[in-house]
Amino acid sequence: MTLKLYAHPFSAYCQKVLIALYENGTPFEWRQLSPDNPQIMEEFAALWPIKRFPVLVDEGRTIQESTIIIEYLALHYPGPVSLLPADPRAALEVRLMDRFFDNYVSTSQQKIVFDALRPEAERDARGCADARAMLDTAYAWLDKTMAGREWAAGERFSLADCAAAPSLFYADWTHRIDAAFTHVIAYRQRLLKRPSFARAVDEARPFRPWFPLGAPDRD
Ligand SMILES: N[C@@H](CCC(=O)N[C@@H](CS)C(=O)NCC(=O)O)C(=O)O
């Protein structure tokens, strides 16, 4: 086995990469990040001083950033499920949707969660209000976009859906998707039924008590 994944099962960006690995049954070695395993934490910090996970190592080569990891897997370990269209023009829509989920949904969601982990006196009320407003705007745009689509970039499951699944999963826990956004809610449900994501969600269940806003009793 050549691939090693430094990751944690409860992390949204790690789940994004796990979906890609599970879709294609790509074998890899888990290097699970945990304070109980300082050796793995040290290896990870040396590989990527930015200390954001996941990080993939392939025979001594380090690949950072979830999107780049999925693109790398598609190039070097292709499987039956192609997560990027061969046509570069069609790939632009996939990459746009991937950026949308990372930059506007996940980043806003993380802002609110990280704020909740801070001591009361260090919290950023204005920043969190802006993040919630961004999530509302993102949900509204996505609802219109998904009205005619099964998956984020159209008919085929792609990199964009790998990003969308954990992004919408945790965003809804953090800032509930309004019931009026029926297309977003239905899409989130489709993602939860996809076996690759269902597996990632199940593997993360034991860590739900860690969610600082309180994990809702659903999903
Ligand atoms: N742009 C990065 C984001 C990765 C990221 O933010 N990962 C979170 C876990 S979901 C993390 O490393 N959190 C640790 C921290 O913020 O200290 C990617 O796409 O991989």
TrEMBL record:
InterPro entries: Glutathione-S-Trfase_C-like, Glutathione-S-Trfase_C_sf, Glutathione_S-Trfase, Glutathione_S-Trfase_N, GST_C, Thioredoxin-like_sf
Keywords: Transferase
GO terms of molecular function: transferase activity
Residue ranges annotated for the GST N-terminal domain, each copy included: 1-81
GST C-terminal domain ranges (all copies): 87-210
Source taxon at top rank: Bacteria
TM region positions: none
Protein name: Glutathione S-transferase family protein
Organism: Trinickia terrae
